[in-house]
């Protein structure tokens, strides 16, 4: 169950997020620079892996699964970076903790929304399987039953998921969280905040694209500007511009969906449905089996893609949850932990 939607507000307006964190005249040690450089180079390589070879690959379920895998790996890298910095949690600035906890709970909510949509799409596939079963059986009512199942699929797939509709507000808050807390006296803190910025940019971008794909609307599309000072900026800009532009082009054409595999199912459905005999008795009625097989293949491929993506979303959920639990555990070991954002005892709050 998702947490109640909080009022719309930016998270932490600490200033311009598109500037370098280190003020003029400040320097980082070679060791800290090496840690930061390694993180940013790896982030750039991951973004490069997401560059599709052709526009047709964009919003395929395999591409979305790769995007979720890359996101999980980047979030795991933050744990490694903190270890490399030797920056114990009890030395974190209170603002950093607030940022992390607020963002993590929003990400858990958005993962729950994505998982619910994947489950909804899979429920629609059950109707398709039922239709295919009837079309391949010898039942006297096979055609009418198949039509009924296909009618149910069309109605189901065209409905809206309330949880996905709420993703826009969550994304607005995540965009607000891109503002970076000021770091004055901690070189390690500056490295952590700069790395966190890269993580947040990648996260907002991927979640925005997923929300657009699942809502079949560009209203959740987020345009991000990143300063050239970040090593991963060129890779991000190329990926960001290509994907966002392609999404706008597809929706401008009034397409039913931007999910490649779902488009294939819908195309096969449109070809099959009109030629199903509208009779209860199949005697003398003929059906082109090639169109039935085409829908069967498209449905199977769609189901396989959904299963792979669902595992990726669940994996990302577990990464975020594990990171949040580890932080809270470390904080509790040093005393009572309070959620500075909500004003309550965060240890007593459950993330549903």
From TrEMBL:
Subcellular location: Membrane
Membrane topology note: Single-pass membrane protein
Signal sequence, renumbered to the chain: none
Keyword Membrane: yes
Location (main, coarse): membrane
Keyword field: Membrane, Transmembrane, Transmembrane helix
Keyword flag Ribosomal protein: no
Family recorded in the similarity comment: Belongs to the ROH1 family.
Stated name of the protein: Protein BPS1, chloroplastic
């Amino acid at each position: 169950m998702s947490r109640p939607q909080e009022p719309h507000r930016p998270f932490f307006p600490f200033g311009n997020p598109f500037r370098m964190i280190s003020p003029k005249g400040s320097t980082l040690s070679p060791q800290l620079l090496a840690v930061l450089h390694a993180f940013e180079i790896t982030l750039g390589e991951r973004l490069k892996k997401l560059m599709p070879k052709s526009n047709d690959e964009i919003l395929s379920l395999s591409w979305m699964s790769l995007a979720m895998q890359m996101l999980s790996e980047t979030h795991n890298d933050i744990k490694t970076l903190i270890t490399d910095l030797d920056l114990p949690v009890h030395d974190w600035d209170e603002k950093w903790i607030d940022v992390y906890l607020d963002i993590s709970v929003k990400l858990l909510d958005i993962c729950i929304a994505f998982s619910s949509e994947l489950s909804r799409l899979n429920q629609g596939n059950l109707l398709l399987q039922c239709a295919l079963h009837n079309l391949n059986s010898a039942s006297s009512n096979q055609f009418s039953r198949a039509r009924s199942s296909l009618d149910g699929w069309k109605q189901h797939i065209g409905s809206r998921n309330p949880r996905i509709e709420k993703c826009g507000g969550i994304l607005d808050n995540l965009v607000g969280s891109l503002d970076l807390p000021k770091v004055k006296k901690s070189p390690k803190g500056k490295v952590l905040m700069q790395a966190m910025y890269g993580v947040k940019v990648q996260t907002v971008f991927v979640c925005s694209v997923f929300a657009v794909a699942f809502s079949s609307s560009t209203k959740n599309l987020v345009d991000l500007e990143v300063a050239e000072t970040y090593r991963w900026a060129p890779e991000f800009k190329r990926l960001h511009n290509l994907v966002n532009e392609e999404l706008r082009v597809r929706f401008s054409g009034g397409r039913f969906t931007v999910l490649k595999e779902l488009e294939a199912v819908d195309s096969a459905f449109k070809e099959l449905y009109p030629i199903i005999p509208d009779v209860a008795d199949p005697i003398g009625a003929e059906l082109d089996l090639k169109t039935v097989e085409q829908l069967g293949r498209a449905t199977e491929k769609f189901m396989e893609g959904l299963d792979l993506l669902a595992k990726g979303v669940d994996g990302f959920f577990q990464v975020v949850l594990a990171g949040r639990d580890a932080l809270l555990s470390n904080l509790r070991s040093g005393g009572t932990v309070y959620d500075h954002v909500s004003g309550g005892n965060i240890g007593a709050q459950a993330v549903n």
